Amino acid sequence: QKEVEQDPGPLSVPEGAIVSLNCTYSNSAFQYFMWYRQYSRKGPELLMYTYSSGNKEDGRFTAQVDKSSKYISLFIRDSQPSDSATYLCAMSKRGGANNLFFGTGTRLTVIP
Amino acid sequence: NAGVTQTPKFRILKIGQSMTLQCTQDMNHNYMYWYRQDPGMGLKLIYYSVGAGITDKGEVPNGYNVSRSTTEDFPLRLELAAPSQTSVYFCASTGSSGPQHFGDGTRLSIL
Predict the structure, then answer these.
(1) A94 C-beta neighbours (distance < 10 Å), count
(2) Residue B39 forms contact with A (CB below 8 Å)
(3) Is residue A21 within 8 Å of residue A8, measured between CB atoms?
(4) Which of A92, A100, A105 lies closest to A51 in space, CA to CA?
(5) Which chain B residues are within 8 Å of A58, Cβ to Cβ?
(6) Residue range B17-29, pLDDT digits in tens
(7) Which residues share a beta bridge with A1?
(8) What is the number of alpha carbons within 13 Å of residue B60 lying toward its C-beta?
(9) Which of A90-94, A95-99, B107-111 has the highest mean pLDDT?
């Protein structure tokens, strides 16, 4: 069993839709949770960085962590064509300089 | 700010050739990482470094070597290139707290 599972998609939605991206994990030691956005032929770009359970909002993006279910989500409101990218979840046991465990990424396309 | 810079962006190698992938960061981060990204496989950690002169193996180190002589630079070397090393390679860095920041990658094909 992989430590981090993520549906690879692809996922296509119309512009303005609410997008839900999810990851599950098996190791209860994970405490820090991240979402990265990766455009084609670019490196991963950090979107959200959260600690433990709860919600964090930043503009159109909301990250949710449910440690009891070992489940994390990223919601994108009012999705835009510029949101079309691959979204990677990542997590670590400790903050800062600690090895990250990545999901395989979900490819999202927002259709104008 | 340049952040994490990787060179070259693209390279084609023949089997058995060697090369060095360069990575430099200007954020004075102590921690640096090398990953490879294969289709449908996510990012796998190859090597990492917690500071100048200190390196350690990640999940998939075989066929690679690294060195860390300065805080800024963390080159990755392939000694005998094999087709299985065809991939996209990413370098990342972080300080003592906070998330990792990535470069834009090197696309390597071995034929």
Answers:
(1) 12
(2) no
(3) no
(4) A92
(5) none
(6) 999 999 999 999 9
(7) none
(8) 15
(9) B107-111
